[in-house]
Each structure stands twice: as C-alpha cells, then as structure tokens.
Amino acid sequence: MKKRIGILFFIAVFLGVTFGAAQVFAAAKVLKLAEVHPKGYPTEMGDQKFAELAEKMTNGRVKIQVYCCSQLGSENDVVEQAKLGVIEFVRVSTSPAISVFPQIGVFSMPYLFRSQDHMWNALNGPVGQHFLAAMESVGLVGLGYFDGGSRNFYTNKPLKSAADLKGLKIRVQPNPIMVNLVKLLGATPTPIAYGEVYSALQTGVVDGAENNVPSWVSTNHYEVAKNFIKDTHARLPELLMVSKKFWDTLSAADKKALKDAAKEATFFQIKAWNKAEDDYLAQAKQKGCIVSEANVAEFQKAVAPIYAMPEYAGYKEWVDKINATK
Ligand code: GTR
Questions:
Q1: 20 to 30 Å CA-CA from 168: which of 45, 153, 161, 311?
Q2: DSSP 5
Q3: pLDDT digits (tens, 9 = 90+) for 174-212
C-alpha cells in the first residue's frame, strides 16, 4: 500500500513539474510582429504601444516583439506567413492584404475618403468593423487600424501638375488599383516591394513613386526624388492583423485584451502620426525639396474612370456606404 502511495505521489510530482514547465515555456514564448518601417516611425511606435499594452492586459501571457525594417520580409510575404501561422502579428498597409482578401481593395480607391476625419468615422463605424471581422475567412483577424495619411506623387523631375507625370515610370505597391490609377495618369506603373524602392529611384529604374510624407522622408526617397505634389490621391488605412491560427489558441479574455490593446494603441498612433507628418514635411522643405499644392480636381477627374472598371463593380456597395458616412 505504502509503495503504491509512493508511486502515485511520484507520478503526481512528475506531472506537476512537467505541466508547470510547459506553462512557463508557453508563457515565455515571444511572438513576432512584422513591420516594414524603421524604429520611431509612427506605425512602429503604434506597434510598440500595442505590444506593451498586450503584455500588460494579458498579465504577461502575450509577449510580442516588433521586428522592424522588413526584417521578416516584404509586406506581401509577411501577410502570407501570418496566414500560415509562421508569424503571429503583422502591421501592413491595406495594399498587401488585397492579395489574400480582395474585398479590402475598396480602401485603395482614389479619393474615397474625403478627409482624415471621414476616414476614421468610416473605420470606427460598421464599414471598418466589417472588414476586420471578414478577414477571418482567409485566416487573418483584423485587430485595428492605424493612420497612414494621404498618398501623393514624388519624382526626380519637375512636378507641378498631373500632366508632369505623363510618360514617367512610377513605383507602386503591388496593388492592381494603384497600377490602374497610375496608368490613367499617363505614367507607367512599376510594382516594387517597399524595401527596394530607394535603390530603384537611385538607379533610375523608376522616376518617382507615391506615398505619404513620413514614408517619403524616412526612407530617404526625398534625397533622390525631391519634387512632391500634394495630390492626396488615396488614403490607405494601415492594418494591424493577427494570424487566425494563433488567435484560435487564445482564451476569450485574452482575445478581448488584445482588441482593447489595439484600440488604445490606435489613439496613441494617430497622435504620433499627426506630429510625424508635420515634422517630416518641415525636414524635407529644409533640405530643399519642392512641395507643390496640386489642382486636386484635375487629378480626381483623371482617375475617376477607375470607379467604372468592371473588376471593381463589387466595391460599389462599400463605396456607397463610405460616401454616406459623415
Ligand atoms: C507606406 C506603408 C507601408 C508600405 C509602403 C509602401 O505608407 O505604411 O506599410 O505599404 O507605404 O508603399 O509599400
């Protein structure tokens, strides 16, 4: 009898130690968050805030490390890896999400959002929430959005009007809507991953690109493409997503904690974004860049036919909902 109790005691201790060790191991696993921007860029600051809050709000059960500067691959690569569960979290532009979830392409349509406020009203309302949830069907869960400002053209040639873009080679994100937009302006679109744009500009593979002010400056593109026109052709929300494979392993309480952490990180990121836009623009002007105001109506008219393209007919429902948002 004594012997049997002894064996049972031994088994219990053994299981306890093993289980405890497994828990410690599980808790210690550091999860990855992929980011293409460098440290201190407003989306990277939003990621760091999210990581900090996620750890706090889950009592240390979710520990995230941010990998900046495309260390884990291009945006298209990391979206694929998140789908497979190789990377747990990604912060990417809406563009790469289109390759796995075409419906979200509606956010790339030109002049869709009338202003920063209009965009946030749509993202915080039923439209934005629909897209975060609908991504589950492709193996990703949307946690929230960050601000990515408005996108504009910049070139190494004088750039004062839409006509100046004619015949130029312009880098775009691997995004069919951006390809069509650039074609409608009479330029040649060249899809290239973000991390490779600087050398493409420097070596003359392209004459210009399009992006928001913080990206133009933080990448040093502004050194080789000094002419910037504020045509504000698109406002692409930034996305914070998590792999559904990983998401499904979490408790309901931790899922809620991560959603709350993302919400708080968004408020923080918008503030950082607004400041960065001003600071980077001042830096570019100080370095002698030429920043022109566009005749926005002229750009808008040139790219409007995109809305009638048959491949985007499915967006109409969402375009109408966004237009109707205050
Ligand atoms: C930036 C965006 C990045 C990346 C980049 C690009 O505005 O924050 O995530 O998509 O544009 O043009 O590739």
A1: 311
A2: H
A3: 999 999 999 999 999 999 999 999 999 999 999 999 999
